[in-house]
Amino acid sequence: QLSCLVKVVTLHGVPKDLDSYPKDFLLFLSPSDYAATGSCRQYFANIGKANLDVLQKESSQRKQLLLEALECLKISSTQVSEENAEILGRLVCDLGGEYVRSSGGSLLKRLSRCDSFLPEQEEAIRTVISSGNTTFGPPVAWSAFTLNELSGLIPVFDHSIFQKIPK
């Protein structure tokens, strides 16, 4: 439905007030469509707030969005800064395990909002958490507040992580 709506709305050109449309609407536009009304950074900041589940996980469209976002934000390595992670928003859920490992704890809080993970992402999350090299510190130093902050990641934890968390 959204795809059809985009076709109707853009029939006579891209509207100048795209920011007033629902964020999910933007998933069916390209950064070049949005360029007339704002920057690609602004486009991906809006995309990061959209319901990405409108697009099937692992779909070519979602993969393309992520590639375009990485290019727009000039992320050439697998390390994502806190600022860029904020712009990516929900798109961080599509980053591969190598990004999770390289970015360390800067992605953990955002990843905890993801609905599901691929096995390689789960392994990377466990590696980063086990290292203790995050803003949350090692699991032995965690509090109830920390667990609340990372609650979306709890299903990914393995026995070795649970063992270290204080009662």
UniProtKB/TrEMBL annotation:
Keywords (A to Z) from UniProt: Cell adhesion, Glycoprotein, Membrane, Signal
Coiled-coil stretches noted in the UniProt entry, renumbered to this chain: none
Main location: membrane
Record-linked InterPro entries: Mesothelin (IPR010335), Stereocilin-rel (IPR026664)
UniProt GO cellular component terms: cell surface; membrane
Annotated compartments: Membrane
Domain of life of the native organism: Eukaryota
GO BP term (any one): cell-matrix adhesion
Pfam families registered for this protein in UniProt: Mesothelin
PANTHER family: MESOTHELIN, STEREOCILIN RELATED
Stated family: Belongs to the mesothelin family.
Name of the featured protein: MSLN protein
Organism: Pedionomus torquatus
